Amino acid sequence: MKQLIISGLLYFSFTNMVNAQTGLYVPQLANFDVAMQNLLSTYNVPGGQLAITYHGRLVYNRGFGLANTSTQDSVYPSSVFRVASVSKTFTGVACLKLFEDGLLNLDAKVFGVNGILNDAIYQNILDPRDTNITVRMLLQHSGGWDRNVSGDPMFDAYNIATVMGVPSPPSASVVIQYMLSHKMLDFNPGTQSQYSNFGFCVLGRVIEKISGLSYADYVNNNILIPLGITNIHLGYNLLSNQLPNEVNYYDFPGASQAYSIYDNTTLVPWPYGGFNLEFMDSHGGWVANCEDLLRFVCGFDRFNTRPDILTTATIDTLTKPSVNDPNYACGIAVNTYNNWWHLGSLPGTTSEYVRDGNSQINWAILLNTRDQVGNINSAMDNLVWSVLPSINSWPTFDLFNTTGIENINANSQITFYPNPTKDKINFSDYINLELRNVTGQLISEQIQVKTLDISNQPKGIYFLTLTDNKGQVLQRSKIVKD
User: Fold this and answer.
1) Is 189 within the bounds of a domain?
2) pLDDT (0 to 100) of residue 20
3) 3-class DSSP assignment, residue 202
4) Does 236 lie in the same domain as 382?
5) Closest to 362 measured CA to CA, from 392, 404, 394, 328
6) Cα Dmax for the chain
7) What pLDDT sits at residue 409?
8) Residue by residue, what is the 3-state secondary structure of 289-301?
């Protein structure tokens, strides 16, 4: 549970920073480096990411550990992870966008001849109470399904395909047909709140029916692209379909294997074919990095620092608590401390974003494993809250800015070129400088130079800090070597 920050409440001791990080090293935020390293070490996590925005500016964005333990490839800020149930917020925002545009009534019935999903394939309904389910009930987990009573159909792909007489894995629409024609509800719609992956699966089809687009196309065209996000995608079941820059996923040590959703005979690692990520699109299927995840969060955080994708009134509807659960709204968890968040968890994945409304801070954490008993969820949830009391100042730069990082002194007249470069950086005047690589390692430190030679450095991204003769930082910039 999210709480107010309590000054001095630290859940770990800070030690010397280790050098396994990638991304820009920010000295005043180094305690976050230590906290992430401690988390990875304590819970045997191969790799992770942490990114933080302060007043709408991306001030921290680092990778930790390994994306692939076999090849020893590092996690970078550009690495992408499955975000699991964090996907529900994408679906919630998409539904509220349709609502704002006058295309979707949140109290509209979903099933039955007068429902949104009134297609012939959805008319074989076993439980008449299904026709009372509304869009709002689905958004607030009040549709009538309790996975603790009747199981979660989103993890029953092969059995559903067999019953419905289709190849496995089935489509999302087949799962809905199965649930309508073969399952009774566990409670009267609108009377309880029971977390339901299936309910958000249905919402994906509602979005498709109303918009006339695929779920992915609607979210991309109306939410992500307008926010400048082009590198969030729906993921795939198998390692052979791994997306560019996607990490590998690892189950906890000693975890059993699963029977493949494709044939129910072959034993496979749970993260790769033990469940069907591809029909989990609208409740658990998105793949992202922390930077783009925070671009998304900043698009509905209701702060005045970056433009929101929804109006203030619509965001208020998005985040209004359910009558059945004061800590859940429409695809987003909320509390009385003015914090919003969502956790995600799948075999091989743990994820979270948080919006600290009182401090105008957002953050996202992604890990490429999960533990057996869920302790990692609590530790991840506490990580940033625990470090915040130790932070005395925040950077003024914005890593969302793709053309550079920080121009600290508005009177600085220093320019440099070319960028990208193959060998040398030329400066418009003599300058003192530091150059670091993506792990934060100091590559070069020079005084009163007009040219920096990096011809002996490998291709990649570097971070340049320019200072005056008094040691005052004038500018920080991102350098790309081709």
Assistant:
1) yes
2) 61
3) helix
4) yes
5) 394
6) 79
7) 54
8) CHHHHHHHHHCCC
d(CA 418, CA 420): 6
287 lies in the same domain as 139:
no
- Which region holds residue 4: left if phi is over 0, alpha if psi is between -120 and 50, else beta? beta
Would you state the structure tokens that stand for residue 137, as one six-digit string? 């009930």
Count structural domains, the chain. Answer: 3
Is residue 226 within 8 Å of residue 307, measured between CB atoms? no
* pLDDT confidence of residue 411: 59
* Segments in 59-86 forming alpha helices (H): none
Residue 16 resides in a domain: no
Residues 244 and 362 in one domain: yes
Question: How much is the pTM?
Answer: 0.86
Provide the 3-class DSSP secondary structure of residue 449. Answer: strand
Alpha carbon separation from 245 to 192, 232, 289, 309 (Å, rounded): 41, 11, 9, 27
User: Residue 132 and residue 111: Cα distance in Å, rounded?
Assistant: 8
pLDDT of residue 14: 31
Q: What is the DSSP letter of 421?
A: B
Q: Could you tell me which residues are beta bridge partners of residue 351?
A: 344, 366
Q: Do both 198 and 94 map to the same domain? A: yes
Q: Do 201 and 94 share a structural domain? A: yes
Q: Is the peptide bond before 226 cis (omega within 30 degrees of 0)?
A: no
Write the DSSP symbol of residue 338: S
The domain in which residue 168 lies consists of: 89-215
Entry field: residues in the chain: 482
Give the 3-state secondary structure of 268-330.
ECCCCCCCCHHHCHHHHCEEECHHHHHHHHHCCCCCCCCCCCCCHHHHHHHCCCCCCCCCECC
- Classify the C-alpha dihedral 264-266-269-271 as positive or negative: negative
Residues 126-140: b if buried by 16+ CB within 10 A, e if exposed: ebebbbbbbbbbbbb
Geometric angle at alpha carbon 78, from 77 and 84, rounded to 5° = 90
**Mean per-residue pLDDT pooled into runs of 10, the chain (482 residues):** 36 36 90 97 97 97 96 94 98 98 98 97 98 98 98 98 98 98 98 98 98 98 95 97 97 95 98 98 98 98 96 98 98 97 98 97 98 93 97 91 57 77 88 82 89 90 82 78 84
CA 152, 156, 161, 167 torsion-angle sign: positive
Q: What is each CA distance from 129 to 69, 121, 183, 192, in whole angstroms?
A: 49, 18, 11, 14
3-state secondary structure of 259: strand
Is residue 329 within 8 Å of 302, Cβ to Cβ? no
Residue 435 falls within a domain, yes or no? yes
> How is residue 309 written in tokens?
């994708």
Amino acid at 480: V
Q: Decide if 201 contacts 282 (C-beta within 8 A).
A: yes
Q: Tell me, yes or no, whether 123 lies in a domain.
A: yes
The CA dihedral of 111, 118, 138, 127, to the nearest 10 degrees, is: 20
Contact between 380 and 365 under an 8 Å Cβ cutoff? The reply is: yes
Looking at residue 462, its pLDDT comes to: 87
